Amino acid sequence: MTEDEKRSRAGNGEDSIYWDKSKNRYIGAISLGYTPAGKRNRPKVSGKTKTEVRRKLRKLRKELEGGAKTSPTYTVEQAVNDWLSRGLAGREESSIAAYTSLAKNHVIPALGRAKLRELEADDVEEWLADKAKTLSDETLRRIRWILSRSIARAQRSRRVSLNVAELVDMPGGQTGRPSKSLSLAQAQAVLSTRQGSWIHAYVVLALLVGVRTEEERALTWTHVHTEVGEGERPYVDVWRSVRRGGETKTRLSRRSLVMPQQAATVMDAYRMRQQEELRAAGIEWSDEKLVFPGPKGGRRSSTNVRKNLRSLLKEAGIKFPEAELCKPEEWTTRELRTSFVSLLSAVGVPIEVIAKLVGHSTTVTTERFYRKQIRPVIAEGAEAMDVVFAPARSEDQEATTGDA
Questions:
Q1: Is the pLDDT of residue 11 over 50?
Q2: Is 337 an active-site residue?
Q3: Could you say which of 142, 337, 356, 371 is catalytic?
Q4: Euclidean distance between the first and final Cα of the chain, in Å?
Q5: Which position among 25, 158, 249, 310 bears the catalytic label?
Q6: Active site includes 225?
Q7: What digits encode the pLDDT tens for the residues 170-208?
Q8: DSSP secondary structure of 29-55
Q9: pLDDT per residue as tens digits for the range 28-73
Q10: Staple 372 to which of 21, 295, 323, 342, CB 3.0 to 4.6 Å?
Q11: Is 106 a catalytic residue?
Q12: All domains of the chain, ordered by start, with CATH?
């Protein structure tokens, strides 16, 4: 009796294993009778050895008994693309772009061609271990999450029964790039560059007040108070961000911050210039308008802000002593915030006060990721910034003070 005859006599639900010369692999199949269209229903697996095929057949049978309709051709790439196209509904465009980039650069090139039902936990573990050689902990967590969500979506459509991405431990990634911080001299150089421009005002709010870049991009003039009553200080309401629904990062991030006088003066002059520009263009002014609108009037993108910040740093001609800080193109808007924290800490503002100013729920994040210097306690918030960035006194004033 030939091998073909043996295969043809396999009963309904029985397994068969045979050598496929054209594929140079063993093939395992389970006979499930016929489909409504009259075609034979024989889910198949393949492997280099009979032992491997038997293991895959046992797994396939378990999936079938659990009700999963696994596909022998459905790949990891298809699963990831299905999730990207259907599983991110309602998310911000920036989030979708970030997930797509990570999937296209890290998940699909390494695992995309694998059949989803044949993907093993060992495969995922080896992939993550390889990626851990070059990626940070956070990026590793994100790409594993993308794979896990993609498989979970395939589970919903019963294409696979087991989410192997959930069965592996996360390896340790590379240490992330440490945040940088401007010194006082460097900050002064930046603040004296391109005065009158929107990017200068943007930097002033971030560097002197501690507003997050995502909060600045959503800021409207309704929340910038430079004209206040007697005995009051100018302040800015940090109540919104570009996050989904306009919410700030955390509950404590929704705060009102007193502006140092230099910041208030800059913002007041910037508002007047913006009003004049709109008037000249025949556009009616409204306090509901964005403080930092993009080229087309809508919200300015983070990419646009980052590009202009780097141009400003380059124009400021800052000389960084550390080799890794010499390139303005490596700075991000987030580092204006770390500079704010470091400058306040340098003049002794308590870490608890700084945490409140930047909207942290505890001092842990402020200590670990933001503060670069520690000094004795001597002042707080806006008052300290007025001292830090006070105009230099003339020699005559210094002499008069000395004589006194």
A1: no
A2: yes
A3: 337
A4: 117
A5: 249
A6: no
A7: 888 876 566 678 888 888 888 999 999 999 999 999 888
A8: EE---B-TTS-B---EEEESSHHHHHH
A9: 888 777 665 666 767 777 888 999 888 888 877 776 666 555 567 8
A10: 342
A11: no
A12: 3-65 (no CATH), 76-167 (1.10.150.130), 184-397 (1.10.443.10)
